[in-house]
What does this fold into?
Amino acid sequence: MRHLIYLSLAAAFSAAAVTVYAEPPSITVPDNVVANIMKRHPGAGNLRGINETHFGQPLLEVSFKDQEGVEILELFNAKGHLVTNEYKVANLGEVSPEAMAALKQAFPEFELQHAELIGNPNGAGQEYEVYLRANGVNWRVALNDKGILLDKRQTD
It folds into this structure.
């Protein structure tokens, strides 16, 4: 009986340790953006839109699954034109040293949930969206490759 109680407590603590981040609420993807995506990805599905700001301009991030089920993230301007893509960062080694230094300064100890890279469509420079957990709080941090924090907000 005691063994069963210990197993139950261990399972409860394990479940409590699972980290989940909350993204902003999804918005309806405009018809002209849907048409743009379908022209290039005819079998796209599960379209989901989120308003974001990158390189100083308001953009609509649309995530979707292509014909093979691969998740794609694209950014569109207010006229529905494709501006650039976001790419999943496999590990923090792919983030610029300046951006990593800024993250470590803002969050001395953190657990990475995931990160995305946004290439500048107008030339040099990159931005990152980093989702992390620090001191029991989930955060979304936007910063550029020079280490300048552009946005920092709790996602809980």
Q: What stands out?
A: The radius of gyration is 19 Å. The longest strand covers residues 45-54.
